[in-house]
TrEMBL record:
Occurrences of domain Peptidase M28 (ranges): 103-309
Protein name: Peptidase family M28
The organism's place on the tree of life at top rank: Bacteria
A biological process term (GO) from this entry: proteolysis
Organism: Nocardioides exalbidus
Signal peptide from the UniProt entry: 1-27
GO MF, one annotated term: metalloexopeptidase activity
Database matches in InterPro entries: M28_fam, M28_SGAP-like, Peptidase_M28
Protein family membership: Belongs to the peptidase M28 family. M28A subfamily.
Length: 479
C-alpha cells in the first residue's frame, strides 16, 4: 500500500444486517436459501505462496519492485498457477518510469458477462524489501480464493475476474492503466471491485474501506461477516491510496480490507484487537524486514476466510442477471453476429458484413477461410449449461463453397466444445461435397450440463485454392 495516514471510525453492524448477509437466522425468522457455503480457505496454502514470493525476492536482489526482475518473476509465477487451474489469463504490460510493469488479469469461465465481480490486490513491493505483508498477503490470499473457486465445482451466477496489479507503489499505475484502456462498455459491466492490501499485519487491526458511497452494500456485507465471527472492526477512509480508487473514479462500487500499516495502534484498539498499543500496525512497513517473519497468521487466516466469503457471496448474488436462463433461451450472446464481434473471440475480422459472401439472415456472419493460402481462423464463445437442464443443444447454419476439386479434404471446419482443458470435435466439414447452400445442423450438449464450456468453430486451409465456411444464426438452448 502507498503511504497513508488516516482516521478510523468505529461502527457496529446490526443483528438484522448480519442475518441478511451471512445467512444466520434471527429468532422468529427463516434463514434464506443459501448458495454455496462460505469456504474455510487454507492458510497453509497461502503461507506456501508467501514463501514462494519470498524466494523470488531473495533470488532477485531482495525485492519484487516494478521494473526489477523480481516483479516479473512474481507475475509469471501467479499467472502460471492460474493457467494450471483453468483460468483465462492475460499479462497486461505498461510502461513506468522504472521500466515495464505488468498486470495479471484472470477470468473464470462462465457467469453472466453483463455482471462482473472483480477481486484484486497489488503484487509489487517497494525496492527496500520483499513486500511479504505489503502486499504479498493480499496477493496470496486472493490467489488462494481464486484457486479454491476453480477446484470447488461451483457455477457462478456472475462473472468472476481476479487481478494482480503492478506499480501500485508508484501511484496505482497498473490499475489506472487497466481502467483507462478498458472499453466503456466493459467498465459498465463491472458491478463490484474488492481490494485487499495488507491483510496479515503483525500488530493487526481490522479496517473496512468506507470511502465510496456506491459501495455500501458490499462494505456492509464485509462488516456483517466480521460481526458474525465476533471480530471487532473499524471503518477506514483510505483516501484513494490503493487500487480501488481506479474503479471508484468511474462510479463502480468498491470495498476492501486493510490490517494496518505505519499508523500507531491506540490503547483502545489494543484492548479490542490484542497486540501492542503505541506500536505501528506494521513496524516493517516499506522496509527490508517485511519478510515471512512479518506476518500475523491469525489475522491472515481470519481475513483469508473473509475474502473467500465475499467471493462466494458475490459469485451468486443477484446483481440483475439470471442464474438459470428460462427454457428455450439462447445462451449465446450476439448469436447472429449482427452486433459485429461483440461477445465472440477469435480471429480478427472473421466476423464481417462483407458482401463477398451472403449472410443467412441480416448482414453479418462469421466468414472463416476463403483465403486460398495456409491459414487457421476461429470464432468462439463461452456458455454455462445449467445443471438442471434435461436437454441442451448447439445449432447453427453453415454455407460452404470451394475452389478445390475432388474428394480429398484439403480445407476443414471443425465444430468443437472445449471443457476443462479437453477439446471434443462434434463435426468436421471439408471442401469435399461443398454445395454453396445453407443447411442447419444440431448437436446435443447434454453431456456438459452443469459445466462452463467454449463453443468453437475452427477453420484450417492448405496452401492453395480457397474454401469459405460461412457461419450464421448460432444457438445454444436448453430445457
Amino acid at each position: 500500500m502507498r503511504s497513508i495516514r488516516t482516521t478510523a471510525l468505529t461502527a457496529v453492524a446490526s443483528a438484522t444486517l448480519v442475518a441478511s448477509l451471512t445467512g444466520v437466522a434471527l429468532a422468529g425468522t427463516t434463514s434464506p436459501a443459501a448458495a454455496a457455503p462460505s469456504p474455510d480457505l487454507s492458510v497453509t496454502n497461502v503461507t506456501a505462496s508467501l514463501q514462494a514470493l519470498q524466494d523470488i525476492a531473495t533470488a532477485n536482489g531482495g525485492n519484487r519492485a516494478t521494473g526489477r526482475p523480481g516483479y516479473k518473476a512474481s507475475a509469471d509465477w501467479v499467472r502460471a498457477r492460474l493457467d494450471a487451474a483453468g483460468f483465462t489469463t492475460q499479462l497486461q504490460s505498461f510502461s513506468t518510469s522504472s521500466g515495464t510493469s505488468y498486470n495479471v488479469i484472470a477470468d473464470w469461465p462462465g457467469g453472466d458477462p453483463e455482471h462482473v465481480v472483480m477481486t484484486g490486490a497489488h503484487l509489487d513491493s517497494v525496492s527496500a524489501g520483499p513486500g511479504i505483508n505489503d502486499n504479498g498477503t493480499g496477493s496470496a490470499a486472493i490467489l488462494e480464493a481464486a484457486l479454491a473457486w476453480a477446484a470447488s465445482g461451483n457455477t457462478a451466477r456472475n462473472h468472476l475476474r481476479f487481478a494482480w496489479w503492478g506499480a501500485e507503489e508508484q501511484g496505482l499505475l497498473g490499475s489506472n492503466y487497466y481502467m483507462r484502456t478498458l472499453p466503456t462498455a466493459d467498465k459498465d459491466r463491472i458491478d463490484l471491485y474488492q481490494n485487499y492490501d495488507m491483510v496479515g499485519s503483525p500488530n493487526p487491526g481490522y479496517f473496512v474501506y468506507d470511502d465510496n458511497p456506491v459501495g455500501n452494500e458490499a462494505r456492509d456485507a464485509m462488516t456483517a461477516y466480521y460481526t458474525s465471527k465476533g471480530i471487532p472492526w473499524e471503518y477506514i477512509d483510505v483516501q484513494g491510496r490503493s487500487d480501488h480508487a481506479s474503479f471508484r473514479s468511474y462510479g463502480i462500487a468498491t470495498t476492501g480490507m486493510y490490517a494496518g500499516g505505519e499508523d500507531i495502534k491506540t490503547s483502545a484498539q489494543a484492548q479490542k484487537w490484542g497486540g501492542t498499543s503505541g506500536r505501528a500496525f506494521d513496524p516493517c512497513y516499506h522496509r527490508s524486514c517485511d519478510t515471512m517473519a512479518n506476518i500475523n497468521s491469525t489475522a491472515l487466516d481470519r481475513n483469508l476466510d473473509m475474502i473467500g466469503h465475499m467471493v462466494w457471496l458475490y459469485a451468486d448474488k443477484d446483481l440483475g442477471g439470471t442464474s438459470v436462463p428460462p427454457t428455450g433461451t439462447n445462451l449465446l450472446a450476439n448469436p447472429g453476429f449482427e452486433s459485429g464481434a461483440a461477445s465472440w473471440t477469435g480471429t480478427s475480422g472473421a466476423i464481417t458484413s462483407n458482401t463477398g459472401r451472403p449472410a443467412h439472415a441480416g448482414s453479418w456472419k462469421a466468414w472463416l477461410g476463403g483465403n486460398g493460402r495456409t491459414a487457421t481462423e476461429s470464432v468462439q464463445q463461452q456458455v454455462t449449461i445449467p445443471a438442471s437442464a434435461t436437454a441442451a443443444s448447439l445449432s447453427y447454419w453453415l454455407r460452404t463453397d470451394t475452389a478445390e476439386t475432388g474428394s480429398t479434404a484439403y480445407d476443414t471446419l471443425k465444430v468443437q466444445v472445449v471443457s476443462g482443458g479437453t477439446t471434443t470435435t462434434l463435426r468436421t466439414v471439408s471442401n469435399a461435397g461443398a454445395t454453396a447452400t445453407w443447411a442447419q445442423t444440431t448437436h446435443s450438449l447434454l453431456a456438459y450440463r452443469g459445466k462452463t464450456i467454449t463453443v468453437k468453430f475452427l477453420a484450417t486451409e492448405d496452401s492453395s485454392l480457397q474454401t469459405s465456411f460461412v457461419l450464421d444464426d448460432t444457438a445454444v438452448t436448453t430445457s
